[in-house]
Structure formats: C-alpha cells, structure tokens
Amino acid sequence: MKLHHALVLDGKGGCREATQAEMDSGQASKGTLWLDMDHEDPGCRAWLLADPGVDEVSTEALLVDSPRPRSFSVGEQLLVMLRAVNLSPGEDEEDMVTLRLWVEKKRVISFRHRRVGAIEQVRAELLYGQGPLNSSELLYDLIDHLLDRIGQVVEDLEDQVDALEEMVLTAENREVRTKLSEVRRKSISLRRYLAPQRESLGRLHAERVPWLNDLTRARLRDAADRITRYLEGLDAARERAAVTYEELSNRLAEHMNNTMYRLSVVAAIFLPLGLLTGLLGINVGGMPGVESPYAFAAVSVLLVLLGVLGWFFFRRNRLI
Q1: How does pLDDT run across 37-76, given as a tens digit for each residue?
Q2: Cα distance between residue 73 and residue 103, in whole Å
Q3: What is the pLDDT of residue 216?
Q4: Residue at 158 is within a domain
Q5: What is the CATH number of the domain that holds 279?
C-alpha cells in the first residue's frame, strides 16, 4: 500500500509520524490518525477491504473512477468526495483533481493520486504546530484551503475579464476574441465540476454525526456559501466575457462597414471619371480634340472639376 504520509494529530495543533504498527492497524494509540493514500495503488483496495471500519460499499465508492462530488454519512463516519483545481505548473486549472475523504472521530483517510495543494498546506501547518486539533477540524481545514485555491482561480478569471474589457474599449484587437473565448471555456468547465460540489458541502454540515461539533458545522455552512459565491463569480465572468465578445464583434463589424463605406464613396466619385476616360479612349474616328494640342490639358481639368464636384456632392449630403 502506497502512502503519501501518515501523521498522528496530537490535539495541540502539531503532529508526529505514525508508527508502522499504527499504519498497519489503521488506528492511533493516542490522538487522531491521518493517512494519505494513493487510491490507484493496487494495495489500497486490499487494505480497505481488510479494515473493519470501512464497509465494502464505501470502499467501492471511495475507489470509483471519476467520482461526482458528494457527501453522506455511513453510521458515525463521513464519506466526502471533492474536486480541487489543478495549480501544478504546466497543468490546466480546469483539469480538476479528485480528493476523497473517509472521516471518523479518531481517523481521517484521504485518497488522491495527483498533488493536492490543500493537503500539502494542512500538513505544513501541522508540522509547524499550527494545524487542526481533531478530525472535524482537519476536514474543515482541507475544505477551506481547497476553496481558497478555487477562489484564487475565480478572481484571476474576473481580473482577466476586466483587462479584456479595457482592451476592447481602448483598442480593436482581434486577438482579444481568442482570449475571451478561452475565458468562457474555462469558466464553463470549472462550473461544470464545481456546481455538484456546492450540493456536497451544503449537505455536509447537516449530517448527524456526533463528533461534528456546532463550530465546525457553522464553518462548513460558511464553506457552502463561499462556493456558491464562487459559482456566481464564474457565471458573472462567463456572461461578461460573452457581452465583451459581442461588443468586440460589433466594433469590428462597424469598423469593417465604415471601411467598405469609404471605399464605396471613393468608387462612386471615380465612376464618372472612369466612364469619361473610357469613352475618350475608344479607338474610332471623329474623336474631338485629336488634332488640338490643348485637348489633353482641357480633359485633365475637366476630370479634376468632376472629381471636386463629386466630393462636394457627397459632403453636402453628409455622405462623407
């Protein structure tokens, strides 16, 4: 069985490394045991099935591929499935990481395969002596740090939309459309995975397990409210990106229409001039001014006058 770490919370904010006997038995002699496992390791299933505290149905639920965020009680234990944003370098934020938790009064088992920043942060707090005191606080701290990272991603998306809105107002940059599409895609993808998490957290604080105290319940209720605000922020970012995209498209269309209109006006001014020069250029007898040395100058002056009259006509009728 592969363990990322095995710690025993001392009830004072600190921790110690679990002994081999504690890891094998899944119980701490004193304090709260926290086992962090790799659920893709083949030995994980065998260990859970051999543990009398975890039933077979819960084992299958904990190890299922791509689980949906949810939470429910199994007797006096809690089974919690959550999604965490992927903030690892080179990874997409919306490539969510699954965090699976089995929480008892004196034991917490977390399951993950990839890096989860919330787990690493709580572990660091415990090593510095400023971590959770028991399993209920450990559960909340993991959720709290997980939501902090989600909030960071949502704020970054909102900042990106602010910057893109400013770019649309100050410059007609075609690259903005690609960036707006990326923001909309990311917002939709994040919301798809986080919306079920709101239901999971909303239900979690109402679960009737005796070791979950009122303070932790209030904190979990606040966590449910926080993720609701984050979802509203994602919705707002997506809608603002859509409105900004539409505004940019309208601006580009208006710019294109103005350009085409100017070209049409220029073509209209030169249309009679082209007709006249084409008429004078036909190679037949009887053309006036063939023998006159002043005919070319006269025709040039006439063309200039026609051009000026055409421009004056469009100007007077406010067409340019």
Answers
A1: 988 888 888 888 888 888 888 888 888 887 888 888 888 8
A2: 9
A3: 86
A4: yes
A5: 1.20.58.340
pLDDT in tens, 155-170: 888 888 888 877 776 6
172 has a pLDDT exceeding 60: no
At residue 32's C-alpha, the angle toward residues 130 and 41, to 5°, is 100
- Specify if 258 maps to a domain: no
- CA nearest neighbour of 219 among 138, 161, 120, 114: 138
Q: Are 157 and 186 in contact (CB under 8 A)?
A: yes
Between 230 and 291, the more confident residue is 230
Residue 24 tokens read as 């094998």
Exposure string over 211-220, b if 16+ CB within 10 A, otherwise e: ebeeebbebb
Range of the structural domain that residue 289 is part of: 264-316
pTM equals 0.75
Kindly list the distances between the CA atom of residue 123 and the CA atoms of 35, 40, 77, 268, 300, in Å, as whole numbers in the listed order.
Answer: 11, 21, 22, 76, 88
Helices 135-170 and 117-127: crossing angle in degrees, nearest 10, is 130
Q: How far apart are CA 95 and CA 74, in angstroms?
A: 30
Q: Does residue 205 share a domain with residue 298?
A: no
Tokens of 84: 């965490």
Is residue 102 within 8 Å of residue 58, measured between CB atoms?
yes
Residue 73 region by backbone torsions, left for phi larger than 0, else alpha for psi between -120 and 50, else beta: beta
The pLDDT score that the predictor gives to residue 114 is: 84
The DSSP result for 240-276, as a single string, is HHHHHHHHHHHHHHHHHHHHHHHHHHHHHHHHHHHHH
